[in-house]
Design brief:
The protein is of the alpha+beta class and 428 residues long. It is 51% helix and 9% strand. The protein is built from 16 helices and eight strands. Helix 13 runs parallel beside helix 16.
C-alpha cells in the first residue's frame, strides 16, 4: 500500500457521488482500498451505441501519455446485461474542480494556480485535438484535480459521444460551458474546445476580475460563430502569451519613460553649473497613512501581522462567497488596506533601490556609470512594482500609478538632499 492509499484507507466515510455530464463520479471502498468509478446515467446506457462509444474512448485514452489525462477501463455487465454501465478510473485521490473551489475558494490566490490550471489543460487539449479528440465541456464539475497537489485531470471525452445525438441531454445544466454548435448537434471542431477553455478561464477569474490583457483573447474565443474564434487551442494559448508579453512590455516601457525622465532630470540637475541660481528646498511631503479611508484598523480587522499576501487572500476568499452576501464596503476596506500596504512596502523598496544610484560615488563616476546604474534601478523598480502589486491584489494600472508617485517623491527629495550636501555650483 502506497502513502496515498494509506491516507485514503484511513478515511472510512462513504464518499458522495458527484454528477458529471456522462454519469456520477464516486469512490468505492474495496478490500480496504478506495477505487474510483464513473457510473453512467441510465438514459445513456439505454442507447445501443453507448457501449461502443465508451470502449473507443477508453482505447484512445490508453495511448495518451500526458499525466493530466486519466485512464479508465469499461465495466461490462454479465449474462444478459452486456452493456457498459460504469468505468473504473486509475487510482488516485481526486475531486472535481468545483468541489475544490467550494471547499477552499482561497486556492485561486495561490501563486500560479490559475496559470498552471489553464496551461496544463490547454497543452492536453492540443494533444487531444491533434488526434481528432475533443473534450467539448470544461465545466468545473467536469474537470478533476488531484487532492495532494491540485493538478488538473480530464476524464471521458465528449467527441466520442456526439454520434448518440444526445448532446442537449448530456450537457443539461452546463450549457454555458459548451459551444453553441455542440448544443445544436452540429459537428464539433477544435474551436469548440477553444470556447470551452475560454469559459473555464472566465469562471476562474469570476471573483477576482479578469486581467485586462486576457479580456480581448477570451472575448474572441467566446464568439458564437466558430469561424470568428481562434482556429485551435494552440493559437488561443499563443494569443494569450503574446497579449501578456505586449502588456508587460507596455507597462515596463511606460515605467521606463517615467523613471528615465526623472533620472535624467536628476543627473543633469545635479551636474556642476557655472550659473549662480537660487535653490529653494522643496517642502518634505512624506507618504502618510491618510492616503486611504480613515476608520479602517488593519490590526483589528485582519490581525496585527497582516501583510500584502494576507490582504490578497482575504479579498479573494471573501469574494468567492455568495455574491448576494458580499458587503461592498468591506471589499473597499480590504482594497484600501492592500493599497496602504503596497505604498509602504514599495516606498521602502524604492528608497533602497534609488539610494544605490543617488550617492556621491555614482554621481561622481560620470554620466556613463550613472546611466548604467539608472537602467538597473529602473528594472528593479518595475519588477518590485509588479510583484508587490500582485501580492496586494491591486490592478497593474493602479500599482503603476502609485509607484510613479512614490518614485517621483523620493527622487525629488534625494535631489534636494544632494543639492544641499554637494552644492554643485548651486547657491542656497
Amino acid at each position: 500500500m502506497n502513502f496515498e492509499e494509506l491516507i485514503e484507507s484511513r478515511d472510512k466515510r462513504q464518499t458522495n457521488k458527484v454528477r458529471m455530464p456522462l454519469g456520477f463520479f464516486y469512490k468505492r471502498l474495496i478490500d480496504e482500498k478506495y477505487s474510483n468509478f464513473v457510473e453512467f446515467h441510465d438514459e445513456l446506457t439505454d442507447n445501443i451505441l453507448f457501449s461502443d462509444c465508451v470502449k473507443k474512448d477508453s482505447e484512445q485514452t490508453a495511448t495518451i501519455g500526458d499525466k493530466h489525462q486519466l485512464r479508465f477501463l469499461p465495466n461490462v455487465g454479465e449474462g444478459e446485461q452486456q452493456g457498459v454501465f460504469a468505468v473504473a478510473v486509475e487510482p488516485g485521490n481526486y475531486l472535481t474542480l468545483e468541489q475544490l473551489l467550494n471547499d477552499n475558494p482561497a486556492v485561486v490566490a495561490r501563486k500560479d494556480f490559475i496559470d498552471n490550471t489553464i496551461g496544463d489543460l490547454a497543452r492536453l487539449l492540443v494533444t487531444l485535438n491533434e488526434r481528432g479528440i475533443r473534450q467539448l465541456c470544461l465545466a468545473p464539475s467536469n474537470v478533476l484535480v488531484r487532492k495532494n497537489d491540485n493538478g488538473v485531470r480530464l476524464l471521458l471525452h465528449g467527441s466520442f459521444y456526439e454520434r448518440l445525438g444526445l448532446n442537449a441531454e448530456i450537457y443539461e445544466g452546463l450549457e454555458q460551458y459548451v459551444a453553441p454548435e455542440v448544443l445544436r448537434g452540429e459537428p464539433s471542431t477544435d474551436g469548440s474546445d477553444v470556447y470551452a477553455l475560454a469559459r473555464l478561464i472566465e469562471y476562474l477569474y469570476a471573483s477576482s476580475g479578469m486581467p485586462f490583457e486576457l479580456k480581448q483573447p477570451v472575448g474572441k474565443a467566446l464568439s458564437d460563430d466558430p469561424a470568428r474564434r481562434y482556429p485551435s487551442v494552440d493559437a488561443f494559448l499563443k494569443a494569450i502569451s503574446q497579449r501578456k508579453a505586449t502588456f508587460r512590455s507596455a507597462l515596463m516601457g511606460a515605467a521606463a519613460i517615467i523613471v528615465a525622465l526623472i533620472l535624467a532630470g536628476l543627473f543633469f540637475g545635479l551636474t556642476p553649473n557655472t550659473e549662480q541660481v537660487e535653490f529653494v528646498k522643496p517642502v518634505e511631503e512624506p507618504i502618510s497613512d491618510d492616503l486611504i479611508d480613515e476608520g479602517f484598523n488593519p490590526a483589528t480587522e485582519l490581525g496585527a501581522a497582516a501583510d500584502s499576501a494576507t490582504i490578497a487572500n482575504a479579498i479573494k476568499d471573501y469574494q468567492m462567497k455568495d455574491s448576494d452576501k458580499i458587503d461592498e464596503r468591506k471589499i473597499r476596506e480590504f482594497e484600501a488596506k492592500g493599497e496602504q500596504i503596497f505604498r509602504k512596502q514599495y516606498a521602502k523598496e524604492a528608497e533602497r533601490i534609488l539610494s544605490g544610484v543617488y550617492n556621491a560615488d555614482k554621481m561622481g563616476g560620470g554620466q556613463k556609470s550613472f546611466e548604467a546604474a539608472s537602467d538597473k534601478a529602473m528594472q528593479q523598480l518595475v519588477e518590485k512594482q509588479i510583484e508587490l502589486g500582485e501580492h496586494s491584489s491591486l490592478s497593474k494600472e493602479k500599482s503603476q500609478r502609485i509607484a510613479s508617485e512614490i518614485i517621483e517623491h523620493i527622487t525629488e527629495r534625494k535631489k534636494a538632499e544632494m543639492g544641499e550636501k554637494q552644492k554643485y555650483g548651486v547657491q542656497k
